[in-house]
Amino acid sequence: xxxxxxxxxxxxxxxxxxxxxxxxxxxxxxxxxxxxxxxxxxxxxxxxxxxxxxxxxxxxxxxxxxxxxxxxxxxxxxxxxxxxxxxxxxxxxxxxxxxxxxxxxxxxxxxxxxxxxxxxxxxxxxxxxxxxxxxxxxxxxxxxxxxxxxxxxxxxxxxxxxxxxxxxxxxxxxxxxxxxxxxxxxxxxxxxxxxxxxxxxxxxxxxxxxxxxxxxxxxxxxxxxxxxxxxxxxxxxxxxxxxxxxxxxxxxxxxxxxxxxxxxxxxxxxxxxxxxxxxxxxxxxxxxxxxxxxxxxxxxxxxxxxxxxxxxxxxxxxxxxxxxxxxxxxxxxxxxxxxxxxxxxxxxxxxxxxxxxxxxxxxxxxxxxxxxxxxxxxxxxxxxxxxxxxxxxxxxxxxxxxxxxxxxxxxxxxxxxxxxxxxxxxxxxxxxxxxxxxxxxxxxxxxxxx
Length: 450
Ligand SMILES: Cc1cc2nc3c(=O)[nH]c(=O)nc-3n(C[C@H](O)[C@H](O)[C@H](O)COP(=O)(O)OP(=O)(O)OC[C@H]3O[C@@H](n4cnc5c(N)ncnc54)[C@H](O)[C@@H]3O)c2cc1C
Fold this sequence. Notes:
Layout: E1 8-12, E2 21-26, H1 31-40, E3 45-47, E4 63-65, E5 72-76, E6 81-85, H2 90-97, E7 102-104, H3 115-120, H4 128-131, E8 138-144, E9 150-153, H5 159-165, E10 174-184, E11 189-197, H6 200-209, E12 215-220, E13 232-239, H7 247-250, E14 262-263, H8 275-291, E15 294-299, H9 300-304, E16 310-311, E17 322-330, H10 331-348, E18 355-360, E19 373-381, H11 384-399, E20 403-404, H12 414-420, H13 423-433, H14 443-447
Parallel strand pairs: 2-4, 3-4, 14-16
Antiparallel strand pairs: 1-2, 5-6, 6-10, 7-10, 8-9, 8-10, 11-13, 11-15, 12-13, 12-18, 17-19, 17-20, 18-19
Helix pairs in contact: 10-11
The chain binds flavin-adenine dinucleotide.
Residues 15, 45-52, 56-57, 66, 86, 108-110, 113-114, 116-118, 120-121, 123-124, 169-170, 174-175, 307, 407, 442 line the site of flavin-adenine dinucleotide.
């Protein structure tokens, strides 16, 4: 029996809305229909919820949407292991399991991503320094290769396929389902401590002195210069226990106020984001943050996903879209590298509303992004000036031994990627050892010659 999946032609982009490509998309309903596509499409890539910023989840010939692979299959309340299909969204896991006392072990800064996307990018959260990337919570995954054969893999079973699929950006096959471990929590609240750091040395000292804390993240004023270079608001957090809540909240520890969602109703004109408005926003944010310094309780949504309360915030950057720059620099070269990057950005006056700094712990993996050190992420509206600036930031990163996050990339050159990451050749070799893995390809993987 044939389970024909009808294709649709659509304009497709990532979260940054750059580039926008005319792509053929197919959304199979179930594993058999998916297998038919995998066996028949000469070139294809899986797509989760399109929250990567660039073109990693686009193949103009066949983009395979996983939105119908959305079943949660089993849950073990003793170990916290959830088995679910790859298209399940993290927000749905939170909806179902937080009221029952479970939260994600590792989560990126948006809950609107799929399990498949989280695995393929091996995403990180605010706790990488302590608990690692998404792979820390993955017990096993089932991956369909280009021959339609499904292989279960884990750190013990088919470990090489597991290693290259975690962070492999969909280039080793289609992730069908996964077993991930959730974290037991007593409440839906986070005990947050806010620290105002006046410069880069202070923010790095704050990270280094809070390495024992579960979560830490800094918003960094990317336009601060001179003695203000790197000034930041650092937020450190722990899951609150019931006895740490005020009596009123302790009665229903998982109940938090439903937050009002704001929607950006139209594309902002490109002039909205100019040097003055960004500088003003950054200064106000720093001063507002420094007023809140010290301890307070915040709900999980505010702590982990501050941007999710503004739906379609990517429209703020205008019709031409934006590009996120995210690099990681090795620990011993982070201070110099960050100084050079921030000096270049503030001199160009082209920073973004929100720039984020995190401390990564060590990580051994075949192709995942993190390494021990500091990661800086910030957005730039796409225009000829910022594209030149981004090339300069790439070079500074390479000069300081850093590398780039493919989930955020939309414009890097193949030469830049290859110069930044010696593991690229190993990844290519591994792909050539798989049956026809070259058929799994995205616009990004073609651009980057992966
Ligand atoms: C506001 C915001 C904040 C973010 N914060 C963070 C952060 O803090 N940390 C972080 O690490 N990331 C962060 N991200 C990036 C995001 O977590 C990743 O890009 C993630 O991969 C997106 O998941 P998705 O389901 O939308 O996947 P998509 O964007 O659709 O796809 C991403 C990649 O996964 C592959 N893929 C998806 N599903 C499958 C599958 N079933 N099988 C094989 N391959 C698959 C695609 O081919 C593609 O290469 C953020 C993104 C946004 C928009």
